[in-house]
Design brief:
alpha/beta, Rossmann fold, 3-stranded antiparallel sheet, 8 strands, binds adenosine monophosphate
Length: about 220
């Protein structure tokens, strides 16, 4: 199954796509996680991406398309994948279409997590991620068992640099201008499945499963 998770920053794409990846047995391909790892490891990609990410802007399309197409060629993607945070612009979506057409593959669904902006700001400010395995937490809605420590791997939880309030506003603006046109793009291909993003994590997960099953 080939799926895309669409939605503004803080909608829960990372958490939900990680859960779905575990239940379907296909990889979660998160461009944000790949870029953060590159930044942490100070690779050439990381050095280029850092400035764009810290300011809340987007990394240029050609760089992102390059890393995603390399990732999708790996063996674990043969049975499908969940794209989390990609595509984020119409150019990226068109490039993905070209690549899929070229290999005779197709997308199954695009899950669009719908959520109000004031809810997003609140969510992002309480968000913490594991510095080692990237698992996401929230200080009030999904805290770890032991404060500041990842349940999964014991790593330290950190606040992402781009979750600072000013940067969050900029990321939301970038979403509105550059990413939200993808809603029309995929609706036009009859792939879009809107899912209400407010509620318990399990509740949203169940809505996503219903949306996928009803495709
Ligand atoms: P995320 O974890 O998906 O919120 O991504 C964090 C940051 O990484 C974004 O604010 C962008 O700077 C960058 N990024 C992630 N995915 C993409 C993408 N598909 N295109 C451009 N920039 C991206």
């Amino acid at each position: 199954m080939r799926l895309i998770f669409l939605g503004p920053p803080g909608a829960g794409k990372g958490t939900q796509s990680q859960m779905l990846s575990e239940s379907l047995g296909i990889p979660q391909v998160s461009t944000g996680d790949m870029l953060r790892q590159a930044v942490a490891q100070r690779t050439q990609l990381g050095e280029v991406a850092r400035g764009y990410m810290e300011s809340g802007g987007l990394v240029p399309d050609d760089i992102i398309v390059g890393i995603v197409s390399e990732r999708l060629k790996k063996n674990d993607c043969v049975k499908g994948y969940i794209l989390d945070g990609f595509p984020r612009t119409v150019v990226q979506a068109e490039k993905l279409d070209e690549a899929l057409n070229g290999s005779g593959e197709r997308l199954d669904s695009v899950i669009n997590i719908v959520i109000r902006e004031d809810e997003l700001v609140q969510r992002l400010s309480g968000r913490r991620v594991c510095g080692s395995c990237q698992r996401a937490y929230h200080i009030t809605t999904s805290p770890p068992a032991k404060e500041g420590i990842c349940d999964a791997c014991g790593g330290q939880l950190v606040t992402r640099a781009d979750d600072e309030v000013g940067t969050v506003r900029k990321r939301l603006e970038v979403y509105r201008n550059q990413t939200s046109p993808l809603i029309q793009f995929y609706a036009g291909k009859s792939l879009l499945r809107d899912v209400e993003g407010v509620g318990e994590i399990r509740e949203v997960f169940s809505r996503i499963n219903t949306a996928i099953a009803g495709k």
